[in-house]
Amino acid sequence: MSATAIDLLDAFRSHVDQFELPELYSVHVIVAAGEPSVNAHLAAHHPLQIATGLLAWADTLTHVTTEAWRVPSGDSVHLSVIGQLAEGVTIRVYGGLPLTEHGPGADLACDTSVTVPLAVLRHLATLGEVTLG
Fold first, then answer.
1. In whole angstroms, how large is the CA radius of gyration of the chain?
2. Within the chain, which residues score under 50 in pLDDT?
3. What angle do the packed helices 118-127 and 47-58 form, to 10 degrees?
């Protein structure tokens, strides 16, 4: 896919206009060698809000995968939903959680990611707590 930043932003804007989605903190467009993509950071901080927001996005994307990444400093975990917009643009929507002893990603090494089932987000959205291991 040969896309410009404008193409990616147009696809993103069209998607956001089409669906009722949770508020975002930031959007980062990547146009470089390889796959152009969009990263979007949820404006949510509580595990329940993040899981609910990610599930809302997952319902609007195709080819969805879910990931947990423990940041290099080790003090937080990003939960992400990665999928494609209708135009084929890859998007990663994520939210960051502080690392807790029994929370998501507690068993991950720093700067390590793992694919997790979408059921992990559903569980977190339902109960407000989850472990990945």
1. 15
2. 1, 130-133
3. 140
Which amino acid appears at position 84 of this protein?
A: Q
Give the Cα separation of 81 and 116 in Å (integer).
Answer: 10
Spatial distance between the Cα atoms of 117 and 66, rounded to a whole number of angstroms: 6
What is d(CA 35, CA 84) in angstroms, rounded to the nearest whole number? 12
* Cα angle value 83/88/91 (rounded, 5°): 35
Specify the DSSP element, H or E, that contains 97. Answer: strand 90-98
Domain boundaries, the chain: 5-127
Q: What is the pLDDT of residue 1?
A: 44
Q: Tell me, what's the pLDDT at 58?
A: 96
- Taking the model in full, what pTM does it have? 0.87
Q: Starting from the edge strand earliest in sequence, which strands make up the sheet with 62-70, in order?
A: 24-30, 37-42, 90-98, 76-84, 62-70, 112-116
